[in-house]
Design brief:
The structure holds three protein chains of three kinds. By secondary structure, chain A is mostly helical. Helix content of chain A is 69%, strand content 2%. Chain A has a single domain, classed as Formate dehydrogenase/DMSO reductase fold (Up-down Bundle). Chain A has 13 helices and two strands, in the order E-H-H-H-H-H-H-H-H-H-H-H-H-E-H. A two-stranded antiparallel ribbon of chain A has the order 1-2. Chain A is globular, with a radius of gyration of 22 Å. By secondary structure, chain B is mainly alpha-helical. Chain B has three domains: 103 residues, no CATH class; 75 residues, Cytochrome c-like domain (Cytochrome Bc1 Complex, Chain D, domain 2), CATH 1.10.760; 77 residues, Orthogonal Bundle (Cytochrome Bc1 Complex, Chain D, domain 2). In chain B, 47% of the residues lie in helices and 1% in strands. Chain B contains 18 helices and two strands. Chain B has a two-stranded antiparallel sheet with strand order 1-2. In chain B, a hairpin with a 5-residue loop joins strand 1 and strand 2. In chain B, helix 9 packs across helix 13, helix 15 crosses helix 18 and helix 16 runs antiparallel to helix 18. Chain C is α+β, with helices and mostly antiparallel strands. In chain C, 32% of the residues lie in helices and 17% in strands. Chain C contains eight helices and ten strands. The chains are: A mainly alpha, B mainly alpha, C alpha+beta. Chains in contact: A-B, A-C, B-C. At the B-C interface, helix 1, helix 2, strand 2 and helix 7 of B face helix 1, helix 2, strand 2, strand 4 and strand 5 of C.
Chain lengths: 398, 347, 284
């Protein structure tokens, strides 16, 4: 039978209760997923709100990616809870001082927003399918259409207004949703590794780059599968976005770490021991070296030399994959890393994740894969490619 | 407004209303009563049954033990609060023992109702929790280096766990400062016949008494006179001696110089180390006891020692401490121990 | 065959009917909302007016009349760990070396070293010396070393006045009582372990069997009956002191009056209520 808990070995001195690592792989996957939500939505908003017309091919697809990830977001949390059946307690009696309670409402709000936005964007398709599809799917579309097949100019005008409004609200919504995850860690007094005012910003910007990278990878993949040529201008805009946000993310992370070391509070010595020891592979090599410096260098090179065509696609896609890895490692290094540095400031632990069980790596991997399975279903139900993205671009940008 | 927008708004309103109703419905009754929590949980938590009952709880059934404990060093609330209560060693009167250190391990019900008293299976394991000398323990705590103090013996062999300070409860007749060795010398003339002139008996029936512990001698005479210790000669002799004379005689013999018995088996002494490790704690490596109530063994003949050990083993001589130690000794071991102590030299 | 006009009329009527239905639903929803708001408001008003039971139903105990506090005299602690064991028995704490409501730390300064070597009950060397994970003992590991200074420090939940753990709880499952104890409602906790992360002292742990977070409660079920916490009851040397700050003669008030006391991690602003005497520069 799987043991109820796994005790972590340690060096130096750690509080006895700390030998059980509380937040495990599931809590690494959770901010990763919410990050993808925020990032993919940003790409969609760049089209809907900021008028980047080059992003038209991916605008609706990014929305579906965001929605698929958002629906799966509660799953790792529910798996982690000691009493998932009581999860709604945080919504029934939300404790206003708790970031988790605020999240439950922010997430509920945001998933509703995403559903609404998706509905409006795909309403012409839904109405069309409601009128012509048979069987179960047909009934589904008819329910979704809310019994109205109105696609008149007046109706579409309302729709466009709603899409625009939702996209605008959705930007702070998405960023608040993921920024608060950073606040969960950054607001705690108990761990020097987490306690930082910059945490919300760091989480947010790394979220944007992860979402952008995901849309890039999935877009390239879907074009290959559909055997249609990749829109290079679209890819370039996404690459620029990735590049710009990456620099800023690196800056924030660098400043945060530098501040920590410079302040030199109690426990910094042990942190330096950790950074120069156990953290070398996950942080310096994976997150920083391979995951950040290499993609930035690659994209810089591509832009500088004005490279195009297949080389551009390959370079950008490879960079995007590395960024996805880097952001996952960043979540790991923050969540697990923070718990491997003891609250005593005198010791370090070593977390060895189990493979099986509720908190195991397999469970975490399944949760990571789930949104993509869901996305496949979504694409079938609401094809983002076949129709022209509804022109919700503001008049000023036309 | 287009139909679908209206319907959407209505749907959102209905959903919002349903959500709010659910929130109101599912909120626990006592929530928000005293603050942002379920008010009833305070009383629920407070209603748990305590498992540790305190020492006075045990008094009702275990009165003599409690009395013993009350007067002992484990109960000194005035002196910087030293209080080793019953439950500190026996475990909570209610509740489970999860350590497995006890016989009759409790399994949830309270002790008087369902279960036997949990008795520590290995006292040494328990006592050394407090009394083993380890780095960090403040100097005012009595501590011993276990290996040097008692080897592998259980603490309760010598110490009464309920009143552990030695000499407090044991000695019945302390050596009185009013005893007079010169008077004793006159009275002791009748003893020399068996115990030798100057208390050194080489081949005489009685053991050497010279240099023996005064307190022990008094106790022995008392025991002989009451019959607690049985020997036809000594029973008669002791009854002829008054209490005052016992003290004087004891003082006289204690003041004499002991003499080692002649022993040619020097090589036995080294081989007997393992056997006598048990004896050394009380009787010393050189045969001089640590406590005034325990007899010195130096100066006694090997045969006398063998007889004495056999008598303890068979129960002819009664002593709780000695009985525990020698109960499993084989004849060979008895001989080894006797030879060892017979080989010790007086100083 | 219906004319265009008749069709249009039918559609209009259907539309009217549907919008009436829609309005009815909306009114219903509004009514439900209004009803619940009203009922909550009236309940609150009723409670305020009648004054109902304003304190928890604990027989013979009024929580407004007590203000509990705890003291630790680290100069007296002998590291016997009877407190650790008693607490586990009294409160059904998991019987292993990784979940503690209270524990004892040993600080040892070896000659020539400036930082202390610290160990506690989760240390494998101590677990080996005790014989099993369910028994607790300090191994005699420094007996051959040159020790300059060494002492024991008992630790437990500080029942802070501004607890970080209560601040982060999403549901209100953990809270501070009027008599100064931070409790956990095991029937309401969802087991997210945010509080475990937030506590700077490492006082909390997750009980995987019950699926809830847990910690020392100063034996609330005992102190509300006039008893002492189990660890205080069992300590043989008086290293743990407990009492009521509302009572000028209580042991804790005497302890605070007679000594220069300090608290752990003052800079966190949590205002802990366990007062220490005799701890050293490195104890935190």
């Amino acid at each position: 039978m799987e043991p109820l808990f796994h005790a972590a070995p340690f060096t130096g001195y750690v509080y006895p209760n700390e030998t059980i690592i509380a937040w495990t792989a599931l809590i690494v996957v959770y901010p990763y997923l919410t990050g993808l939500v925020a990032g993919a939505f940003t790409i969609s908003s760049l089209y809907q709100v900021f008028g980047f017309r080059q992003l038209r091919p991916v605008a609706h697809f990014a929305l579906l990616v965001s929605l698929s990830c958002m629906i799966v977001v509660p799953l790792p949390l529910l798996l982690h809870l000691g009493h998932p059946e009581r999860a709604f307690n945080a919504m029934i009696t939300p404790h206003a001082t708790s970031a988790f309670a605020i999240f439950s409402y922010a997430a509920a709000f945001y998933v509703s927003l995403l559903i609404l936005e998706t509905w409006f964007v795909f309403r012409p398709y839904i109405v069309h399918q409601a009128q012509h599809r048979q069987g179960v799917l047909g009934s589904l579309y008819r329910v979704l259409s809310l019994g109205s097949y109105d696609l008149s100019e007046k109706a579409m005008r309302y729709d466009r207004k709603w899409i625009f409004a939702l996209a605008i609200i959705g930007i702070p919504g998405a960023h608040g949703l993921h920024g608060y995850v950073g606040f969960v860690f950054g607001s705690l007094k108990s761990r020097e590794w987490w306690s930082s005012d910059l945490m919300p910003a760091i989480f947010l910007f790394s979220a944007i780059i992860s979402g952008t990278a995901l849309v890039i990878v999935l877009y390239v993949l879907s074009c290959k599968l559909r055997k249609i040529p990749i829109d290079l201008s679209c890819l370039k805009v996404m690459a620029y976005a990735l590049w710009g946000f990456m620099m800023f993310t690196l800056l924030l992370e660098g400043v945060e770490f530098a501040s920590l070391v410079y302040r030199g509070r109690e426990g910094t010595q042990v942190i330096m021991e950790y950074v120069q020891g156990r953290l070398i592979v996950p942080f310096f090599i994976l997150q920083f070296g391979i995951g950040s410096v290499l993609p930035i260098a690659t994209i810089t090179f591509l832009i500088w030399r004005g490279i195009n065509g297949k080389a551009l696609i390959a370079g950008v896609t490879a960079s995007a994959l590395l960024v996805l890895l880097a952001v996952l490692m960043m979540r790991w290094n923050v969540v697990i890393g923070g718990q491997e540095i003891a609250k005593t400031g005198k010791g370090l632990l070593a977390y060895h994740p189990p493979i099986l069980g509720r908190e195991g790596l397999l469970a975490a991997a399944s949760v990571l894969i789930a949104p993509f399975v869901l996305l496949l279903v979504m694409i079938r139900l609401f094809p983002p490619w076949e129709q022209e993205p509804s022109a919700a671009v503001p008049a000023s940008a036309r | 407004m287009p139909r679908h927008i209206i319907r959407l708004l209505l749907l959102m309103a209905a959903f919002g209303g349903a959500a709010y109703a659910a929130m109101a419905f599912f909120t626990a009754d006592s929530f928000y009563k005293y603050g942002h929590y379920r008010g009833n949980s305070v009383a629920e938590i407070a209603s748990d049954k305590p498992k540790y009952k305190g020492a006075t709880y045990c008094d009702s059934c275990h009165a003599e033990r409690f009395a013993e404990w009350s007067k002992g060093v484990h109960n000194r609330p005035d002196r910087g609060k030293v209080l080793v209560g019953c439950e500190t060693c026996h475990g909570a009167a209610g509740g489970r023992d999860t350590t497995g250190m006890f016989q009759h391990a409790a399994s949830g019900a309270d002790h008087p109702n369902n279960l036997k008293l949990a008795v520590p299976a290995e006292p040494a394991k328990l006592c050394t929790h407090c009394h083993e000398r380890i780095v960090g323990r403040p100097a005012q705590q009595p501590q011993i280096v276990v290996a040097d103090h008692a080897g592998t013996q259980q603490c309760t062999v010598c110490h009464n766990a309920h009143s552990p300070r030695l000499g407090l409860v044991v000695a019945a007749a302390p050596a009185s400062s009013r005893s007079d060795a010169s008077v004793g010398k006159v009275k002791a003339v009748m003893c020399t016949g068996c115990h030798g002139a100057d208390g050194v008996s080489e081949n005489l029936p009685g053991p050497s008494l010279a240099g023996q512990k005064e307190s022990y001698l008094v106790e022995a005479l008392t025991a002989y006179s009451t019959g607690a210790r049985s020997n036809p000669m000594m029973n008669a002799a002791a009854q002829a001696v008054s209490i005052e004379d016992s003290a004087n005689i004891a003082a006289y013999f204690a003041g004499l110089k002991c003499e080692s018995t002649l022993n040619h088996e020097k090589q036995v002494a080294s081989a007997a180390q393992a056997t006598v490790s048990k004896c050394i704690a009380c009787h010393g490596a050189n045969g001089i006891s640590a406590n005034r109530s325990w007899p010195n063994l130096v100066g006694l003949s090997k045969n006398y020692l063998i007889d004495a050990l056999r008598a303890y083993r068979e129960g002819a001589r009664k002593n709780a401490i000695m009985a525990g130690i020698v109960s499993n000794l084989s004849d060979a071991h008895i001989e080894e121990a006797a030879a060892y102590y017979a080989n010790t030299t007086c100083r | 065959m219906e004319t265009e006009e008749q069709l249009e009329k039918q559609q209009r009527e259907r539309r009217n009917f549907l919008s009436c239905l829609g309005s009815a639903v909306a009114c219903g929803a509004a009514a439900v909302m209004a009803g619940t708001v009203l009922s909550r408001a009236t309940a609150a008003v009723r409670a305020a007016v009648t004054g109902g039971p304003t304190r928890p139903a604990i027989p013979g105990y009024d929580w407004t009349k007590h203000r509990w506090a705890f003291g630790v005299d680290a100069t007296k602690c002998i590291g016997c760990l009877r407190c650790v064991e008693a607490c586990k028995r009294e409160n059904d704490v998991p019987a292993d070396a990784h979940h503690f409501r209270t524990w004892v730390e040993r600080y040892v300064y070896l000659e020539g070293e400036e930082t202390a070597r610290v160990d506690s009950q989760a240390d494998p060397v101590n677990i080996a010396a005790s014989g099993s994970e369910g028994e607790y003992r300090f191994a005699d590991r420094y007996k051959d070393a040159k020790v300059e200074k060494a002492f024991f420090v008992p630790k437990l939940c500080n029942q802070c006045t501004n607890p970080a753990c209560v601040q982060v709880c999403p549901t209100g499952a953990t809270y501070r009582t009027e008599d100064g104890v931070v409790l956990i409602d095991h029937a309401y906790c969802i087991g997210c372990q945010y509080c475990v992360q937030a506590c700077p002292y490492g006082a909390r742990y997750f009980n995987a069997e019950k699926g809830v977070s847990d910690k020392c409660t100063w034996c609330y079920h005992r102190i509300t009956k006039g008893l002492q916490p189990a660890c205080v009851e069992v300590c043989p040397v008086g290293a743990r002191i407990f009492g009521d700050r509302e009572d000028p003669q209580s042991p804790i008030n005497q302890f605070i009056r007679d000594n220069q006391v300090q608290v752990l991690k003052r800079e966190t602003g949590n205002s802990p209520n366990v007062f220490y005497v005799g701890i050293d520069k490195e104890v935190s």
